[in-house]
């Protein structure tokens, strides 16, 4: 049986990874939106 310390630690790591991933994805989306205004396709 897993104890509460491990469970809270795993949950904290999961939330941290999700936050980092969301930050990277948001930055990439804003960067691509900003770049699309300069292209002459």
Strand-pairing-aware structural class: mainly alpha
Count of DSSP helices? 1
Which stretches are low in confidence, meaning pLDDT under 50 for 5 or more residues running?
none
Overall mean confidence score, pLDDT: 90
Order of helices and strands: H
Percent range for β-strand residues: under 5%
Instruction: Give the N-to-C terminal Cα separation.
Output: 58 Å
In which range does the helix fraction lie? over 70%
Categorize the overall geometry.
rod-shaped
List the defining traits of the structure above.
41 residues; mainly alpha; 1 helix; 80% helix; rod-shaped
Provide an overview of this structure.
- The protein has 1 helix and no strands.
- The longest helix is centred in the middle third of the chain and has 33 residues.
- The termini are far apart.
- It is rod-shaped.
- With 41 residues, the protein is an all-alpha fold.
- The model has no long low-confidence stretch (mean pLDDT 90).
- 80% of the residues lie in helices and 0% in strands.
- Keywords: Membrane, Transmembrane, Transmembrane helix.
Question: What topology does this entry show?
Answer:
Layout: H1 4-36
Short description:
The chain is mainly alpha-helical and 41 residues long. 80% of the residues lie in helices and 0% in strands. The protein has 1 helix and no strands.
């Amino acid at each position: 049986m897993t104890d509460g310390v491990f469970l809270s630690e795993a949950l904290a790591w999961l939330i941290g990874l999700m936050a980092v991933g969301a930050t990277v994805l948001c930055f990439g989306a804003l960067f691509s939106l900003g770049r699309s205004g300069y292209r002459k396709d």
